[in-house]
Design a protein that fits this description.
The structure holds 2 protein chains of 2 kinds. Chain A contains 8 helices and 44 strands. By secondary structure, chain A is mostly beta strands. Chain A has a domain at 37-102 and 202-228. Chain A has a 22-stranded antiparallel barrel. Residues 1-6 of chain A have low confidence and may be disordered. Chain B is mostly helical. Chain B has a single domain (44-274, 353-521), classed as Alpha Horseshoe (Serine Threonine Protein Phosphatase 5, Tetratricopeptide repeat). In chain B, the strands form 3 sheets. Chain B has a 4-stranded mixed sheet. Chain B has a two-stranded antiparallel ribbon with strand order 1-3. In chain B, strands 2-7 form a two-stranded antiparallel ribbon. Chains A and B meet through strand 2, helix 2, strand 15, strand 16 and strand 20 of A and helix 1, helix 2, helix 3, helix 5 and helix 6 of B.
Chain lengths: 817, 525
């Protein structure tokens, strides 16, 4: 059920409110990386290596192949260049290739300070005949990555009109328009070339393209990993969205000729219509994109059209002085139609015009989807005086997206709360001023998406390839194969049973508030796409697959330490502990796949608090100790659980201090426990960017810690020699477990200062300053543990060159008259 | 006024109710949820089209050939996954390494079984015998690659569905290679029988949906006999009567390809809609460098293929260098530096249009030469070998031409691998060694003939393991890791290791790839 609530104008004069703020974003945590060792491998400089396993930057002039002080092809041509070395990329760009070596801070130089402007204006008024509210808003953001950003405009109007004593009509409408320029993600991502850039390479200073050829990128590594500066100029990833949602309603109320009854009947027709247009362009000259690096573009759009019909009747009945009953019955119909259109064009004829009409080969497809839901519901609320409240609801849904005969499902709920401080004898107690006990039971049904088995055009993507190496039709010939996803024709709706008990207590007339809630959710017939063994011939099976349960404890404490006319001070804390477990899985299913890569993956399995990270582990002995081989290197053991994601608890703290018109507030969060897969952390070792890898080279020694040798004695095998140390990091990175990091953190979420400069009856002016995500303490070695990717199922457990988190600083004003 | 409005409301309510009951019946909702974007069924020939593409691109010519090329030292792995394969860290034992190939093979097996069921007696396309026969050839092919590379593996429970379309077996059981191998021959025999018929079924002949032979059944029959020869040759080590098998192999070859125009290849890579898989890999990843041991062989044998084949990255693209220079700079097997765009590479790696050979004419001629040599029919063997070398030269030349066209900044001055050059090489280099040890020279030439962009490292890896099993140390490999870590097979695919208990147990930690031979190489699994 979609309930659109809108702010309506209050009765009286026209009210105008204007808000404006600006904020500046910076990366919250720059990884601390080595700046001693140059691009290369095995201790030798190599200008196309992706790794920083070269000589010390200071020693580059002595490089056998590129140094200015040695005998090589370049000094033979140009003569000896003491103190300098030859950088071929500088030559390609038309610069003097001979430079003095130095270390560059490529990451700091690449990212901008992002800027966000927000402005909003609203006007509202209420009259005897009704009310209206109208607002306009705009947001403009320049991202921390060059050429990325967002613009968004929205307008909202809502009105309500009294047609007569009994009839009311209302309308509300929202329109928004947004335009977003994004950076590519994952392996195509900007971060994947910026973060591991060798410190010896001048990423910003050396032009990103060849002299006289802007469509030939020039960078520190080849292949699909394009120079990020060139990429941001030539490749664009744009998303434009237009959306309207709103509703009109007509309501009728009557007292049915009784003082004790009140009936409201309302019919509302709503809609939500949006079109999102995407345009992804790999520009002319993009390495590996299109045949002969000629680039390609994809243009695709989703048009979604949802219509919602809602009829409700609400009867309020004051049965007697003690009992009140409200009853709501209703019917809801939601009809959704989605159209997807896709067009692909490859091989631009020439540079500078990355347009569909400039492509040599084109392909297109489209998709149409419809769904319909009928819901019928009844809610009963019975109250006894003002301390006992009983709520019961029931809803039946019929959904089109389920298989025939499994479309209808009913789910009830029941709640009881008891304000015991209203009882005679307790009421008026000076210490315990408010006390409430709550309990509830609720069932929620959730439909899945079922399709009868079908055939589709095979696609060839992923693996080692860039883009699509095979696109049907081949020479005009099409092909079709059975879908890799198999749907269970006996799919039934997922069912969640929630039980909740809680208590709210107020002490000393609002000085201290405490509340605690325990809830348990039992999910049965969970709908998931279960990954299938390849040997079945299919990839996944959409089915109901077992039982999971969640235990959640939530507690809050708020203390109003000071409450004076000119001085207020309050502090609050909220504690959350949420634990998820799998109790049972369908036959043949070992675990639920939540997300991730081929390896590692985020999973839920029986017996583990989920999600867990599953992947290749270190080989261990019977005692569970990691065993190293005769060279002191860990080896891969059987794949298994290598990380536990669920935190022990999350504790939020907030405080607010007001002195006259000045308010200082702060919010912080402490997440204790949990681990994550940080691909970046592991790859910094592999690429030779990490501080640890430089220290190992400086000392010419590294030892795999906390392990035993094959004979069970503690590992004391020191790995020495530049090449062996590099191999150590290569081998480490081949074991997923080496990239598991701790992910506890304490963050200062926000510190804000607000000053109400003018406060009059008809005129208010406030200014505010704020800083968000200012301080971070974490046991994650390199990254901000909140930098993560993937869907919510994975609970932020995966990260691999993900776009970094930001800290923001800003200020704003608000004006009301 | 008031009354009128109420009436309208009732009317609206009535309308809503009418719409409600009319449009939430099961039939109406079936209509709403109807899949408008996919077809519920297709005839077998459309399934076979991708079975061919996938067998070529994802099975014979894709990652399997890529990793094989590293293990047999056609290439040296110099970056990331191929580097790890080269130094025997991670990749050779990891279940993820060949997961895509594993899944592709099984998808092909399932699709072939569906196509066979559709065209068999009682199926909806009964009477389409040629289509049925082609599906059986491709089923045999995928089964062959599956068990050659992964040993004991699930097969019969793959793609078996319940009435309602759900898989009957979620964790297919493992079957012994010794039981799978006879089935390859059986499928090929059945294919030959079916191919003798016609496509008389309602959906018509396969025609242009056949991307390999365009529906020419005579050539499919030849291909089936050729494959029978290949797979029988694989089992020489475990044969109870090797000489009889060799005679049988020769009889199969007699019924197989008579010229290059018959060979079983996927020749549909146009560089735009479809690219050669080695090109696709090289273009995106550049993880292969010229193999020192291979270039040593080219140099030793004064093989004309070595001179025009190699180049290094220059300021714009790849600059041709001489074989001597390429050997000097070649990536050492087992111990290269991990670096891209550095070592010399073969132009063929950029052969965007080079066909994937599923069974080349030169392979068939090499098989013939091998069988004859093993039967001491040396003179006939020499003739077959000569034909094989000529055909292999021509195929390699074509690959080099594609690569040079695509990536050469400086092309080789001379590229001539014509029949004349091949025969000259045969006379002046091959012949002397052939005279000394016919079988060895045949296998060496086969090994060199499989080098290139046609996905034939796949079969070279089978040959190397086969020869090791027979104690025939004909091909010198230089990777020092081979002392204890020559991969004897590929690890099972991750999708099964993580969901199929049988495979999880059999996989362990993956180290079995170094210790357990497949059945036909003298092992037990």
């Amino acid at each position: 059920m979609i309930v659109i609530t809108t702010k309506r104008g209050a009765q009286g004069k026209t009210q105008v409110s204007f808000n404006s703020n600006i904020s500046f974003d910076r990366i919250s945590r720059y990884p601390e990386l080595q700046n001693t060792y140059a691009q290369g491998t095995g201790g030798n400089f190599n200008p196309t290596a992706s790794t920083s396993w070269g000589p010390k930057i200071a020693d580059l002039p002595k490089s056998a192949s590129h140094g200015g002080e040695t005998e090589n092809a370049f000094t033979r041509a140009d003569g000896q260049k003491p103190g300098m070395y030859y950088v071929p990329q500088r030559a390609y760009a038309g610069l003097d290739p001979w430079v003095k070596p130095q270390a560059y801070d490529n990451i700091k130089e690449f990212f901008n300070t992002g800027v966000t402007f927000n402005n909003s204006l609203s006007v509202s008024q209420g009259t005897e005949r009704g009310n209206y509210s109208f607002s306009l808003g705009s947001t403009k953001q320049n991202g921390i990555i060059p050429n990325t950003g967002m613009e968004r405009y929205n307008a909202r109007l809502s009105t309500e009109l009294k047609l007569s004593e009994r009839f009311k009509a209302a309308f509300s409408g929202n329109f928004s328009n947004s335009n977003i320029n994004k950076a590519p993600s994952a392996n195509d991502g900007i971060v994947a070339t910026v973060y591991p850039a060798p410190p010896s390479y001048d990423l910003k200073g050396i032009p990103s393209y060849y002299e006289n050829n802007p469509y030939r990128p020039n960078g520190y590594r080849g292949g699909a990993f394009v120079n990020p500066y060139w990429g941001m100029e030539n490749n664009t990833f744009n998303e434009k969205n237009n959306r309207f949602f709103g509703s009109g309603s007509i309501a009728y109320n009557t007292d049915l000729n009784s003082e004790k009854l009140l009936l409201d009947v309302k019919y509302q027709l709503g809609t939500d219509i949006y079109t999102t247009n995407f345009r992804d362009v790999w520009g002319f000259g993009s390495p590996t994109r299109g045949s002969a690096n000629n680039g390609y573009l994809e243009e695709y759009s989703f048009t979604n059209n949802m219509v919602n019909s809602l009829l409700t009747a609400n009867l309020s009945w004051d049965i007697n002085d003690d009992f009140n009953l409200t009853t709501l019955v209703g019917n809801e119909i939601v009809n959704t139609a989605t159209t997807y259109r896709y067009a692909y064009g490859t091989d631009f004829a020439f540079g500078g015009w990355n347009h569909m009409d400039n492509t040599a080969n084109k392909d297109a497809s489209s998709e149409y989807k419809f769904s319909r839901t009928f819901g019928s519901f009844v809610n009963l609320n019975l109250s006894y005086r003002n301390f006992l409240f009983l709520t019961a609801t029931g809803r039946q849904d019929i959904v089109s997206t389920m298989p025939r005969n499994n479309r209808r499902f009913f789910y009830p709920s029941l709640g009881l709360s008891f304000v015991f401080t209203e009882l005679d004898g307790i009421r008026g107690n000076d210490v315990l001023t408010f006390g409430k006990l709550r309990s509830s039971y609720a069932q929620v049904g959730q439909a899945g998406n079922y399709l009868p088995s079908y055939y589709s055009i095979p696609t060839y993507e992923g693996g080692f390839y860039s883009g699509q190496p095979i696109i049907y039709p081949i020479g005009g010939i099409k092909a079709y194969i059975p879908s890799e996803t198999i749907y269970n024709p006996n799919l039934v709706p997922q069912n969640t049973n929630s039980y909740e008990i809680g208590v709210d207590l107020g002490f000393l007339k609002g000085l201290v508030d405490v509340s605690y809630t325990f809830s348990r959710q039992n999910v049965t017939d969970q709908i998931f796409a279960v990954p299938l063994a390849g040997s079945t011939g299919a990839a996944e099976f959409m089915t109901n697959n077992g039982k999971v349960h969640t235990n959640a404890h939530e507690a809050t404490v708020n203390v109003n330490i000071l409450r004076k006319n000119d001085l207020d001070w309050s502090i609050g804390a909220n504690f959350t502990k949420i634990d998820n477990y799998v109790d049972e899985l369908a036959e043949g299913v070992n675990s639920i796949f939540l997300g991730g890569f081929v390896t590692p993956q985020a999973r839920a399995g029986i017996g583990d608090k989920f999600p867990v990270i599953y992947g290749s582990s270190y080989a261990r002995n019977q005692k569970g100790q990691i065993v190293v081989d005769e060279d002191g290197l860990p080896t891969a053991g059987a794949p298994g659980v290598i990380g536990r994601v669920a935190p022990d608890f999350i504790l939020g703290l907030n405080t607010s201090l007001r002195y006259k018109r000045l308010t200082l507030s702060a919010v912080s969060e402490w997440k204790q426990g949990g681990q994550m897969y940080s691909g970046t952390t592991g790859l910094f070792g592999l690429y030779g960017n990490s501080m640890e890898s430089a220290e190992a080279r400086d000392k010419n020694e590294i030892m795999f810690p906390n392990a035993v040798k094959e004979d069970g004695t503690p590992n004391d095998i020191k790995i020495t020699g530049y090449g062996n140390i590099q191999d150590y990091y290569t081998i480490l990175n081949n074991i997923d477990e080496s990239s598991i990091v701790e992910a506890s953190f304490f963050k200062m979420r926000e510190i804000a200062l607000r000053y109400q400069a003018i406060k009059k009856e008809r005129f208010n002016l406030g200014v505010n300053f704020f800083a968000r995500n200012l301080l971070l303490w974490t046991n994650s070695p390199v990254i901000d543990p909140e930098s993560s990717q993937g869907n919510t199922n994975m609970a932020g457990s995966f990260e691999r060159f993900t776009l970094p988190q930001t800290s923001s600083y800003g200020f704003g004003i608000n004006l009301q008259f | 006024m008031k009354k009128k409005l109420i009436n309208q409301k009732y009317l609206a309510g009535l309308l809503t109710l009418t719409v409600f009951f009319a449009s939430c019946s099961e039939d109406a909702l079936d209509g709403v949820n109807r899949d408008r974007n996919n077809t519920a069924d297709v005839s077998a020939k459309f399934i076979l089209t991708d079975l061919m593409t996938s067998t070529a691109f994802s099975v014979a010519g894709g990652d399997i050939s890529l990793y094989s090329s590293v293990y047999v030292e056609h290439e040296t792995g110099v970056h990331n996954q191929t580097y790890n394969a080269e130094i025997r860290s991670g990749e050779p034992t990891l279940a993820t390494t060949n997961n895509n190939s594993w899944n592709a093979i099984y998808q092909n097996i399932k699709n072939a079984k569906i196509a066979i069921a559709k065209t068999s007696a009682g199926g909806p396309e009964e009477g389409n015998d040629v289509t049925n026969g082609i599906a059986k050839v491709l089923l045999a092919y995928n089964l062959g690659v599956l068990t050659d590379f992964f040993g004991d593996a699930p097969f019969s429970e793959t793609g078996i569905m319940n009435e309602d379309g759900t898989p009957k077996y979620y964790q297919p059981k493992i079957e012994k290679q010794s039981e799978l191998y006879p089935q390859i021959q059986q499928f090929l025999d059945e294919a030959i029988a079916s191919l003798a018929g016609t496509d008389a079924g309602v959906t018509g002949g396969i025609g242009t949906q056949d991307l390999i032979y365009g529906g020419a059944k005579a050539q499919w029959i030849k291909a089936a006999y050729g494959l029978k020869a290949r797979y029988l040759m694989h089992t020489l080590k475990v044969s109870s009567n090797a000489n009889a098998d060799l005679a049988t192999i020769l009889s199969y070859i007699d019924k197989s390809f008579t010229s290059v125009s018959d060979e079983m290849k996927f020749d549909r890579y146009d560089g735009v809609q479809a690219v050669n898989p080695l090109f696709g890999y090289t273009n995106a990843r550049d993880g292969l460098g010229a193999s020192k041991s291979l270039l040593t062989k080219f140099t030793e044998y004064e093989d004309p293929r070595g001179e025009p084949a190699f180049g290094v990255w220059g300021s714009q693209a790849v600059v041709h260098i001489s074989l001597a220079d390429a050997l000097e700079e070649a990536a050492p097997n087992g111990a290269p530096e991990q670096v891209q765009y550095f070592y010399p590479l073969c132009f063929a790696n950029y052969a965007y249009g080079a066909p994937t050979m599923l069974l080349s004419y030169h392979e068939l001629m090499f098989l013939k030469a091998e069988a004859l040599a093993r039967l001491q029919r040396t003179e006939e063997a020499e003739e077959a070998l000569q034909g094989a070398v000529v055909a292999a030269f021509a195929n390699f030349e074509r690959s080099l031409e594609y690569g040079i066209e695509y990536v050469a900044q400086v092309a080789p001055e001379v590229l001539d691998l014509s029949e004349e050059v091949a025969l000259d090489y045969f006379e002046n280099s091959v012949k002397a060694r052939f005279t000394e040890n016919p079988l060895k020279e045949i296998m060496v030439q086969k090994y060199l003939g499989f080098y290139g962009a046609s996905g034939e490292s796949t079969e070279a890896f089978n040959d190397i393991r086969r020869m090791k099993a027979l104690g025939e140390d004909f091909i010198t490999l230089a990777n020092p890791k081979n002392v204890s870590q020559f991969p004897l097979r590929f690890p099972y695919g991750n999708s099964d290791v993580t969901t199929n208990q049988h495979i999880f147990d059999a996989y362990g930690n993956g180290s079995y790839v170094y210790t357990e031979n497949v059945w036909w190489a003298g092992g037990t699994r």
